[in-house]
Design brief:
Blueprint (H helix, E strand, L loop, with lengths): L12 H8 L3 H8 L7 H14 L5 H8 L4 E6 L3 H6 L1 H14 L5 E6 L3 H10 L7 E5 L7 H8 L3 E4 L15 E4 L1 H14 L5 E5 L5 H16 L9 E3 L4 H14 L5 E4 L2 H13 L9 E6 L2 H4 L6 E4 L2 H17 L7 E4 L2 E3 L5
Parallel strand pairs: 1-2, 1-3, 3-4, 4-5, 5-11, 6-7, 6-8, 8-9, 9-10
Antiparallel strand pairs: 10-12
Helix pairs in contact: 1-2, 1-3, 2-3, 6-14, 9-10, 11-12
Length: about 350
């Protein structure tokens, strides 16, 4: 009969505890993601885990804790957009950073078809993951409600438009000040003397799209200017939709002299359409985007844009999800992050 002995080179939990200066029971609670440990002790134990290269027996832990030690980040977009747009990469980086000092493993998925959605609904249970983070949600998406019904810890990246009303179902989410950021962008364009300020608004079945359009309207109203609906066109946050929307705006209002686009990619598309039409940026038309992504620096001309802290947003999503999984007390289910305008040559 073969003897099952521990590999003498493989560190034990007792060695981790000794390195961290705590008891084995305390080290076990940290490794098993218990909330009954101080942040200082938790940090010391995970530092010892990394130093020694300790690898927990995941199968045994699952039997004891009834947890999978896995969480999902689900993007409701095609793989092409999920990997091609800076926003999603920034969220993933932030989430990874937020999970770095936990035993949780991250798996990434995107939904790009009804069949893929159905498959995802079957996978997102407590038998497969301990919690879920959802981003790029549209109003028709049933996934948040389904996960809440299952009692699975869930955090939303941004609020769907259907959650903006007074009767909205409470949920854990992290969002940025979309309204304030858009208002600041349009106020700036008005302050530098632009008179016909258009907007390429985002999709109106997404909270970010709705709120950035609200901010545009608020900035005009604060100056006593009525909203001209001919100066509003809509896109889906992609560059190609920015091109098409800008062409529509030029056809309706050829004398416009500024445009606020609700995403950097739509702003880049708008700049392309303006260049194609022989308009100079910013001399003829000033352009402001939203996100302050790396693309803004390399635009021609470099893009003035509303900065949203995307990496921080991902990190806060992870923190909020981990707190739910641990059963920690959470003062508020909603986290709002500030935005600010970064001025460059396009405006």
């Amino acid at each position: 009969m073969r003897s099952h002995r521990r590999d003498p080179g493989r560190p034990t939990l007792s060695e981790v505890a000794a390195r961290a200066g705590v008891g084995r029971g305390t080290a076990s609670r940290v490794v098993n993601n218990s909330s009954q440990v101080s942040p200082t002790v938790r940090a010391a134990v995970w530092a010892a885990v990394r130093e020694l290269g300790y690898v927990p027996n995941r199968a045994a832990r699952t039997l004891v804790t009834q947890r999978t030690d896995s969480v999902a980040l689900v993007i409701s977009e095609s793989g092409e957009r999920a990997f091609g747009e800076p926003f999603f990469a920034g969220i993933a980086r932030g989430v990874s950073a937020g999970l770095a000092d936990t035993p949780l493993q991250l798996w990434l998925s995107w939904i790009q078809s009804p069949g893929g959605r159905e498959k995802m609904e079957h996978q997102l249970t407590d038998q497969h993951v301990d919690g879920v983070m959802l981003i790029s949600l549209h109003d028709a998406d049933p996934l948040p409600g389904l996960l809440m019904e299952r009692g699975l810890p869930t955090v939303l990246g941004g609020r769907p438009a259907q959650m903006l009303g007074p009767d909205a179902q409470p949920a854990y989410f992290v969002d940025v000040d979309n309204t304030g950021g858009a208002r600041q962008a349009v106020e700036y364009l008005l302050s530098i003397g632009r008179r016909a300020v258009a907007t390429v608004a985002g999709p109106q079945d997404m909270g970010a799209g709705v709120n950035r359009l609200v901010g545009y309207r608020q900035a005009l109203a604060a100056r006593g200017r009525p909203t001209n609906e001919n100066l509003i066109a809509y896109g889906d946050f992609s560059a190609s939709s920015g091109v098409e929307a800008m062409r529509q705006l030029l056809a309706r209002c050829p004398d416009l002299d500024a445009v606020f686009a609700a995403s950097d990619l739509m702003a880049l598309g708008a700049i392309k359409a303006l260049h194609d039409a022989g308009r100079r940026v910013p001399e003829d038309v000033a352009v402001v985007g939203y996100e302050d992504s790396s693309l803004a620096l390399h635009a021609n001309p470099p893009l003035t844009s509303v900065h949203q802290p995307v990496i921080t947003m991902g990190r806060e999503m992870a923190r909020l999800l981990v707190a739910q999984i641990r059963g920690d007390e959470i003062p508020s289910p909603a986290i709002f992050l500030d935005t600010h305008l970064v001025r460059r040559q396009s405006a």
